[in-house]
Each structure stands twice: as C-alpha cells, then as structure tokens.
Amino acid sequence: MSPTLSNVYKYSSPRQISSQQENYPLSPRSLPRRSELIDMTETIRQAAMHRAMGGRVKICTFCKTNGESEQIYSSHALKDANGNVICPILKNYSCPECGASGEKTHTKKYCPKLQKRLRHEMLKNIASP
C-alpha cells in the first residue's frame, strides 16, 4: 500500500516527516507545508486587520520552527492565555502516543504520557543493579 499525504501527516510529527524519506516514496520536497493543507485565509486576514489597528504581532513558534512563511507564523499565536492550543495547523494534528487533538494537542516530543513512560523506564534502569 502506497502511503498518502494524510497518512504521512497523521502518524508523523512535523520534524519526522523529512526524516522518513527512506520509508516513503514521497520526498520531503514533494510534501506540501502543513499550511497548504489548511485554509489560512481568514486567519491571515484577521491578523492583518489586528496589526493595522495597532495590535501586537503574534508569533507561532510551532509554525516558525517548522518552516512556514512569515505570513503564516505571524498570523496567530501557539496558545491562548489559558494554555489551550490556538494554532490552526497544530490543532489539526493528533498525537500518535496518546491521541490528544484539538485544544489539548501536542507533538510527540511534548506528550505527557510518553514523558511519564520514559521517566519511569529511566528510574527503573537506575534502580536495577
């Protein structure tokens, strides 16, 4: 079965996609940016209006780190004041470890379930003679 873009994105963290080149017939250069899979028109329009009215420029570190254009990463923030994810690109992602998505989504690197398991394994290894 040949993988589709949705399968590649569904099971891959943003940085893993390019490292999986040998596993998939798709090269990293042939994969669209995540923002190309989501309509960002309204988000960009609202950000432009906000800046035109003298508002602060918001920066999404997730989008900036993953190579999105300045127009995309400066159109929104990563999280709101309550810690909920508001990045439309990250909200579309589902953690492969715990399945978290939407406002509570995170990448595998920040998965609390994975971090807890790794901590437990590390302590177990330290305690074993």
Description:
By secondary structure, this protein is mainly alpha-helical. The longest helix has 16 residues. The N terminus is likely disordered.
- Number of beta-strand segments: 0
**How many angstroms does the end-to-end distance come to?**
45 Å
Fraction in helix = 25-40%
Cα radius of gyration in angstroms: 17 Å
Low-confidence stretches: 1-31
Write the H/E string, N to C: HHHHHHH
Mean pLDDT: 78
Tell me the structural class.
Answer: mainly alpha
Mind summarizing the main beta sheet?
none
Shape: elongated
Helices, by number, come to 7
Report a brief summary of the structure.
This protein is mostly helical and 129 residues long. Helix content is 40%, strand content 0%. It starts with a helix and ends with a helix.
Task: Jot down its keywords.
129 residues, mainly alpha, 40% helix, elongated, 0% strand, disordered N terminus
Topology:
Layout: H1 5-10, H2 16-19, H3 41-52, H4 61-65, H5 70-73, H6 88-91, H7 112-127
